[in-house]
Amino acid sequence: PKATTSNFIKNIIIEDLRTGKVDEVITRFPPEPNGYLHIGHAKSICLNFDLADDFSGKTNLRFDDTNPLKEDVEFVKSIQEDVAWLGYQWDGLFFASNYFEEMFNRAVLLIQKGKAYVCDLSAEEIRKTRGTLTEPGQESPYRNRSVEENLDLFMRMRQGEFGDGAKVLRAKIDMSSPNINMRDPVLYRIAHATHHNTGDSWCIYPMYDYAHPLGDAIEGVTHSICTLEFEDHRPLYDWVIRECEMEAQPHQYEFARLNLTQTVMSKRKLKQLVDEKVVDGWDDPRMPTISGLRRRGFTPEAIRNFAREIGVAKSNSVVDVKMLEHFIREDLKLKAPRTMAVLRPLKVVITNYPEGQIEMLDAENNPENLEMGHRQIPFSREIYIEQDDFMEKPPKKYFRLFPGNEVRLKHAYFIRCEEVIKDENGDVIELHCTYDPETKSGSGFTGRKVKGTIHWVEASQALPAEFRLYEPLLLDQEGEKDGSFLEQINPNSMEISAGFVEPTMKDSKAHDKFQFFRHGYFNVDPKDTREDRLVFNHIVSLKSSFVI
Ligand code: ATP
Ligand code: MG
Ligand code: MG
């Protein structure tokens, strides 16, 4: 065992191998292609692939595509991209829809055995007669149709003779079972709809509870891992495998799904955000989708380490989103060059610096990783600093620039604020400062100390850049709640500013990542960056109080 730490599913596998119940481990990741994958799916992906890998087993990517109305090839494509980007290579690439013929034949077998029947009740009537936890269900008046009649009707359902909802195929199990899932569940429904894979060849489609166990059995999956809400479905899963007389004997195991604070984690709601243009597509950097996290600047390593750290449990809980942020910081700490960016520029003229002169200053690329070497950054009479780093009337303990005060410019000199230039509205538009050549960084100057160090960018060579700063999409701390979901959306989840970065970043490419001095980690946006203007997505700030 390599990648994963101990967990209850792993212990089951160890035991199954020891007793000879299985002789190899086959898992699957089974998304429905009805949306993009999110960070919750990443937990399931890591779990399935890592577990199989621990035992030199196999993992299939299987599209559970049994609902033609919501599925699309766009999603099939994005899901493959995301799984591969996370760093996993599937053994088999399968579609549940490629098993439709076999599933149909197994349904015919159920009918022949008297274990399934065609029912004419509407969806509403079926729901009403299903009973409750305390009351048994009522048997359908169609429950005792003969095998011949059922075979004939099921065939005619397939041939398209009946409209949507006119008939369903139901398992004949037990209307008084304490488990409502066992009260003659629907196995097939009619839907005259074009399927992304099978086109118009079918107008009846198997339900998840029927298709899923059969898909697992057909592929020889040994350990079928799903989320806790399916625990009550397990008896039906076993019933389908047994009554359809499948040769392979997969078993279902349930684990707690991932919930994150301040994060929407349902495909249906994420789709609503996309469709109603609350966000700019599935890969908007504010989205908790894998593609959104990628565009934001998260790395596969950070997501995998996060998934491993949260582990698998048997009870639901909400994980603090700060923990995910902790892992991206950890991953980028030694990898990302530390450069300077001014997000909201204020011009500074250094009046005693020679006009027209540009000198190159030495800057370390990453003091925590000396192998990243050094770079040369220009310095001259005109620079930009951050608007926030100047205050005309500073409060106590403000150690940055104010009239008469001296600060250190990172990698450069001490400067002192001599004069404040304002426009006709009284807004500060420029500062006039003086510098002290004795204080050059690296010169060993010890004559006097200053309390503040600020960052800057030389004005004539500065590269214009756009910075996108994010806040959580949800206002609430506790993750998704019931009620009107769109009302919980944070109206200020993105703030855009226009500023500058140092010229050393001229050849930055999509997805290059930097730590901007004092601002935190940023990713070069892969969609909106143009040759004359870099766009940076804020990944995460520098510090957090979060400890694992
Ligand atoms: P959603 O409820 O967000 O629509 P889903 O469960 O319907 O998700 P599927 O495409 O059916 O999405 O999921 C594929 C796999 O990912 C399933 O095995 C499912 O259990 C797992 N999965 C989905 N959401 C989570 C989550 N939040 N945490 C862990 N696993 C998840
Ligand atoms: Mg779903
Ligand atoms: Mg699902």
TrEMBL record:
Residues where L-glutamine binds: D64, Y208
Residues binding ATP, per UniProt: 32-34, 38-44, 227, 257-258, 265-267
Domain Glutamyl/glutaminyl-tRNA synthetase class Ib anti-codon binding: from-to ranges: 336-436
Keyword Aminoacyl-tRNA synthetase on entry: yes
Pfam family, one: tRNA-synt_1c_C2
Domain tRNA synthetases class I (E and Q) anti-codon binding: 453-525
Motif 'KMSKS' region: positions: 264-268
Subcellular location(s) of the protein: Cytoplasm
Keyword RNA-binding on entry: no
UniProt name for this protein: Glutamine--tRNA ligase
Source organism of this protein record: Heliorestis convoluta
